[in-house]
Structure formats: structure tokens, C-alpha cells
Amino acid sequence: MAWRSLAKFRAPHFRAGGLLRSSRLDVFTDRPVTETEEINANSEKYFEHPENREFWLNRPFSHPETVGKYLERFGLLLATLGIRPGDKVLDFGCGTGWTSIMLARTGAEVVGMDIAPAALDIGREAAERELTDDVRSRLTFETYSGDGIDIADGDVDFVVVFDAFHHFPNPMTILREFHRVLSPHGRFGFAEPGAGHATSESSIAEAEHGILEQDLDLEQFYRSAMAAGFQGLELAIPALPPEILTLPMQRMRSFLQGLPWIVPQDFLRKTVLTGPIGVFRKGAHPVTSLNPRTHLAEIRPVVSQVSSSVGEETRIVARVKNRTETVWLREGRRGSGYVRLGAHLLDEKRTMLDQDFGRTELPRDLTKGDSCTTEIVIRAPGKPGTYIVQLDMVNEGTCWFAQRGSPVADVRLDVQP
After folding, report:
1. Is 375 exposed, middle or buried (0-12, 13-18, 19+ CB in 10 A)?
2. CA distance linking residue 123 with residue 389, whole number of Å
3. Residues 121, 123, 128, 134, CA torsion sign
4. Closest Cα partner for 342 from 332, 356, 362, 328?
5. Model pLDDT, residue 195
6. DSSP characters over 58-83
7. What is the pLDDT of residue 44?
């Protein structure tokens, strides 16, 4: 019976023997302007019921039976995106703003945007209740006009949509706007209900208020985003809900020891198809120093020893090579995520004297296996003696590569009077 119940979640291009590329789904189509305006007007009215205000203010904790799932899915989306303090984030379709409030707590600069002014008023009240003045200063709520997004080209680092895209009557327009407002290496992250959502009991109840409820087909979503200019999609695999499959330890032990059939693949397919979580990227590279997986470099100085007079500028030339799949960006965003060759100054006993002894930019982005020659300029210490210039790569705003196990390279520096 379980297998039969799962079969309805198998879209034709996900069935056994099928391929994603076999789908002939078209891209999204925006609804006519008059219909879009009517749907948006209904969405505005939805939050204009004072008797529901405390319910909205308490989200996502208003429904004890679903709060765990909301937080789990939002947490997975955040972990996939890799938002950092100082990043600019557009939380689009934010509703009453609980996701915007959480995003502001990460240290990001957040714009919560929604079609419904009443919902945003609730978000502002919740922010007043929950956030300190410092965190609240990083959060603004703005009303969406229903057409274009009032943000300059390339001005945000992330767009986040949580359980809202399936409500949009003009999805292609919105996807193109997301692409426009994102920075060159920006990312659009989403968590959505998928197959079967429109026919659920809760969706039918929402539709009675004029709210647009529709299934979101993952393949169609992908094709539409590519048509809007995005370069690729990475999907997370959500956790299996306990009501679908919770394993007793005896069976879990067998699964962990290498019996994969204990967790049927159809259960995994269902979690992705009915609740996709993923990230569309604007840039060409899926993994960069803005969202790094590993830090590993090969550094080869041209010489092993240099001499200099006290206080004199000295140049050290080195060949550096990227040894990982993480693309090193020459230019990151907002002071972080770009890779440079750096130098530390040590004495003969290898005691650190100056951790930030020098920096130099890369001539270009470096992909896996790519290398370049670069030159770092240092100024000799004011005291004669023998020193060590230790060369290491640095991912600005993240770490020195040596902190993640990457080898350094030493150059002896002899300083004369």
C-alpha cells in the first residue's frame, strides 16, 4: 500500500526509467494583468482580520504540530545558502515577516517584501517585540507593487523565498526581477511545497479566501529560472518526516552498515517532489570562495631567500595553484569572499611577529587546477636580523587557508642595517 500511495507523487519525468530531460513542460506563464491584480488584492485582504493578529505575530510557533517542520526546512535553506553578516538579503513574499526577523539575526541587511501592507505591519510589530535596536536597524519592510521590484540592479546578494513562490500569479516576471537585483555571484534560495500541494486540505481552505494555491513542478521551475537568466540549480535533500519513516535502532543499524534498501528511494523522491529546497545561482560557478567547501592551495615561491635593508620594500614572487573545486574569486562582495596571497612575519624561532605582513590580489579568478604567478610587496622590519616570511592564501572574511589544513610556504628574509 505504501508504494501505491507514493506512486501519485511520481511526475512522468521522475518515474523509473524516465529522465529529467524527457519532460516537455513549458516555462511558467504569467497570468493576465487583471487576474494578477485580483489575486494580489485578495492576498492583501487576507491579513486584514484583527482577530488573527496574535496568531500571525506568533508565527512560526502558532501551530505546534508544524513548527518543527517550518524551522527544520528554513534551517536547511539557510545552511544551503551560506548567508554572512553584512550580506544584503531580499526576503520576498515574507508575509508577516518571521523569516525576515530570523535573517536579520544572522547579521545580514534584510529587506522583507510582500504584497500585503497589513502583513508587513504585523512584521514590524513582531520585530519591535523580538529584536534589539541594533538588529532591528538592519531590517526594513517594504511593499511589493505587484510588478517590478524597487531595488537597483545587482544590489542584493541573496533572494530568499520561503513557502511563497507557489502563490505568485506572475512567476516569470518575478524570476527575471530576482535575476536583475542579484549581484554577479548572487543566489536565489527557495523552500516550497511541491507536488500535491494544491489539493491539500489547508490549500483548499486558503483558496476559499481567493489565495492562489498551485503545485510547483520542479522541472518547470528549473526551466523557467534558466529562461530568466540563472545558471544552475543545486537541490538539498530534506529530512524524511517522522510520519513517513522513523527507524528503530535495529533497522537503523543495518542501514548505517550498508543496506540502503531499508530506506526506499521513493520516500526520498517524495520528500524532494513535495517539499523542494534549493538554490539557483546567478553566476557560472556552483562553489566559490563566497560559499566555500574546502580551502587548499599550492604555493611555490620563486626563491627561498631574499635580502633587504631595514625598512626597505622587498618583492616576493610566487606561483599559486588552486587544489580544490572551490573557485577562488578575485572580487567577492562587501569585503569578503575574495582570495588573496598573504604573508605573515615570524622570527627565527617561528614566533609570530605580524600576522598581516602583506597582501596581494590575484590577477583573475582561479578554478580547480588553475594557477597564476603573483607578486607580494613587503616592507622589511626596522631591526636587522633573520626572519621568516610565511606565505599563505587568505579568503577574506572567512579564514587563512592554513587554518583549514592548507600548506604554507616559507621564505627567509635577511634584513641588513
Report:
1. exposed
2. 53
3. negative
4. 356
5. 81
6. TTTTT-TTTHHHHHHHHHHHHHHHT-
7. 78
pLDDT value at residue 187? 96
Does domain 297-416 fall under CATH 2.60.40.10? My reply is: yes
CATH of domain 2-281: 3.40.50.150
CA quadruple 31, 36, 40, 45: dihedral, nearest 10: -110
C-alpha cell read off for 230: 540563472
Give, in order, the Cα–Cα distances in Å from 158 to each of 96, 102, 184, 305, 371: 19, 14, 11, 45, 30
Question: From CA 273, how far away is CA 222, in angstroms rounded?
Answer: 13
- What residues does each domain of the chain span? 2-281, 297-416
Q: What is the pLDDT of residue 23?
A: 52
In this structure, which amino acid lies at residue 111? V
Mean pLDDT over each residue of the chain, to the nearest integer: 89
d(CA 163, CA 283): 24
Q: Which helix (H) or strand (E) holds 34?
A: helix 33-46
